[in-house]
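Mods, move this if it's the wrong board.
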Amino acid sequence: MKVTLTLIVLHLALLSYLVLYNINAWADELTCPNGMTLINGGTYRMGDNHSGFVEEKVVEDVSVKDFCIDTYEVSNAQFAEFIAATGYKTVAERPLSLEQFPDLP
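Not the wrong board. Structure tokens:
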């Protein structure tokens, strides 16, 4: 009985801490840096049950939080600079997946 009561008290203390100090609960509205635009989050349907691509199968609800996106498109030169700085591999540079393309030789 004493152990159960102790566990309940600890559980309530942890829950109280999480509620009081939840960063998201106290966060200000998202503000974007200069040159970026706020996109409001929401829920949308993603997928296509009639698609030939495995990764698009099964339509499901997907939720996203608010996020910032560049106001203007990224130029090819800016993208090349990003790749050089980070070593990012584009989709065209990645190996093909047998799961995604089962007819590969």
